[in-house]
Amino acid sequence: MRPSVTLETLRGQRRSLLAWSVALAGLIAMYVAVYPSVEGSGSSFSKLIEQMPDAYKALFTTGGGIDFSTPAGYLNVELFTFMGPIVILLYAINSGAAAIAGEEDRHTLELLLVNAVGRRRILLEKFAALVGGVACLALVLWLALLLEGRVAGMDVPVANGAAALAHLGLLGIEFGTIALLVGAMTGQVGLSRGVAAGLAVIAYLVNALAPLVGWLEPIRKASPFFQYLGHDPLRTGVSVVGIAVAAASTAVLVAIAVVAFERRDVR
What's the domain range around 234? Predict the structure, then answer.
């Protein structure tokens, strides 16, 4: 029986995933602990941010405006607009870069190839491991929000919380797949991380600054961050269009990665 590349990859990441999960649970605990003090003076915080320059506000309030008086408003500003994407993208991009380029860098790709495992299967199973890891972290975030939030009276709707984290997971998978694609094309870990991270920053800035910069508005909907935050999933639930666009974009990236990896000379 051929070995499962997906299971072996996830098994190798089990300690890393555990560490990420503990860190995420701790991050949510911190936000939950602070919320009661913020809730009582939510209007003051909102007024303070409203006095800041528009460009600065745009960078931290792309998830649905400024509102610290409700759990959804507070979490949008403090978690889902900035810190949540950073954490998920860090994991996903590193995981995507390690999938093919990392194996080459460690000189372990040859072991996979000589075990009668085709290149297409290797890449697709590495992608499946990326999806599994991101899904695991999104699930931890969702459970932490529900369980820890109730302790502090922060009632996050189950369905809307799941919707927000589903969109966040797809955001991570999309940029993780970009890192996977670059690694499949070049075999270079650093380049894979750099390209994916750079594109993530550009996509974030396009989505955040488009309302203020007229020439960015026409391309805003092409940004993965718009598909993630543009319709405010924590308040409105799942966006079928957002999910479809993110999934289709990821599928195209995977298809290109398969073709590039199969054609490249791996020495």
Answer: 5-263
Mean pLDDT of 145-168: 87
| Contact criterion met (CB below 8 Å) for 220 and 213 | no
1: pLDDT confidence band, cut at 50, 70 and 90? very low
Task: Single out the residue of 161, 147, 159, 138 nearest to residue 32, CA to CA.
Answer: 147
Closest CA to 125 of 38, 248, 4: 4
What is the count of structural domains for the chain? 1
Neighbours of 179 (CB within 10 A): 33
Q: How far is CA 197 from the centre of its chain?
A: 11
For the segment 104-137, what is each residue's pLDDT rounded down to a tens digit? Answer: 888 887 777 776 568 898 899 999 999 999 999 9
**At a CB cut-off of 8 Å and minimum separation 6, what does 202 contact?**
none
For the chain, first and last CA: distance in Å? 26
DSSP of 191-213, one letter per residue?
HHHHHHHHHHHHHHHHHHHTTT-
CB 233 within 8 A of CB 75: no
Provide the whole-model pTM: 0.89
User: Which residues, other chains included, contact 136 with Cβ-Cβ below 8 Å and sequence gap of 6+?
Assistant: 17, 21
Q: What is the pLDDT of residue 208?
A: 84
Residues 6+ apart with CB under 8 A from 213: none
CB atoms within 10 A of CB 223: 22
